[in-house]
Write a structure and sequence with these properties.
The protein has 300 residues and is mainly beta. It has one domain: AttH-like fold (Beta Barrel). The chain is 3% helix and 58% strand. β6 and β7 form a beta hairpin. The protein is globular. It starts with 22 loop residues before the first strand and ends with a strand.
């Protein structure tokens, strides 16, 4: 899927737009066969002291052991955004569609951590979602809804090789800053279900086996016990509940910022707390019960 988004901020000049609230994000989530959760994320934007700053974050949470958390920041001279904005590099770390073909790559090599993640595409094709609020725009694309991933992610003796399922997103614009975000997704050999909303922009998809499921009436709920549910009724006889597994963590979006940068981000209302969890999804579909891996992400 070509990621040349129909947003004025994507795919045009290589320098970012002038809006203080403009940013562009590339995200990759992998649930591995050994029970781990991997997240790779790059944010380029104007909410720091300098326009066009970039932040690369990669984490691997593993059951029963200390997570691997890697961070690399760069100024405008350290950022390289690929043709069509399908990929991005911050210093020596990269994420996105870098090589020939539609697959995604996450790559970092540092004394703190090393990772190469290769993702082959899969899942339904999902339309771009764009929302407007007070003349500000936010757009979301889902280039890979249910990919197959393999590679390694290590720090010293921790981590190692893995295989798993993956979700890739590309988001950006000058809107939705300060708005909470809710992302929940389930992906397995026959299941691709997802919901991603921030501000007025919502992406929803559902495919079970070869059937594309209507999503017009979906309702997203966060329950008191921490589970998250998607109810597609009455458009479809489909209900999904994702239970957090305890693999994951919370990241402070202000970590690593200088005092001046914190003032800027707080002034424009940027959320600080990002929680990422692996979960187990139970799907009730037309009288049948299915189960697969899932993720829950919230920013507030």
């Amino acid at each position: 899927m070509v990621l040349l988004l129909t947003l004025w901020g994507f795919g045009c000049a290589e320098t970012p737009p002038e809006s203080l609230t403009w940013r562009e994000q590339w995200e990759l989530f992998v649930v591995t066969e050994d029970g781990s959760l991997i997240e790779g994320r790059v944010v380029i934007g104007n909410t720091g002291l300098y326009r066009g700053q970039g932040r690369f974050r990669a984490s691997r949470w593993m059951p029963g052991t200390t997570p691997i958390v890697f961070a690399m920041d760069g100024g405008p001279a350290d950022i390289d955004i690929g043709t069509g904005h399908e990929s991005v590099r911050v210093g020596s770390a990269l994420l996105g569609r870098y090589e020939d073909g539609p697959h995604w790559t996450l790559r970092l090599a540092h004394e703190e951590a090393n990772a190469i993640v290769h993702v082959d595409p899969g899942g339904p094709l999902i339309d771009l979602a764009t929302g407007m609020h007070e003349e500000r725009q936010w757009t979301t694309a889902v280039p890979i809804a249910n990919g197959q991933a393999h590679g390694w992610f290590t720090a010293g003796r921790r981590g190692g090789k893995f295989e798993g399922r993956a979700l890739a997103l590309h988001r950006g614009g000058d809107g939705a800053l300060g708005d909470p975000r809710a992302l929940v997704s389930a992906f397995g050999p026959e299941i691709s279900i997802g919901f991603d909303q921030q501000g007025p922009t919502r992406s929803v998809w559902a495919r079970i086996r070869d059937r594309v499921i209507p999503t017009e009436s979906v309702v997203h709920r966060v329950n008191e016990d921490g589970t998250v549910s998607l109810d597609f009724r009455p458009s479809a006889d489909l209900m999904m509940t994702v239970v957090p597994s305890g693999v994951g963590g919370q990241l402070n979006g202000h970590d690593g910022l200088m005092l001046g940068e914190r003032w800027v981000t707080e002034a424009v209302g940027k959320p600080a707390n990002r929680t990422v969890n692996r979960g187990r999804a139970t799907i009730e579909f037309e009288g049948e019960t299915l189960s697969t891996s899932g993720i829950i992400v919230s920013v507030e």
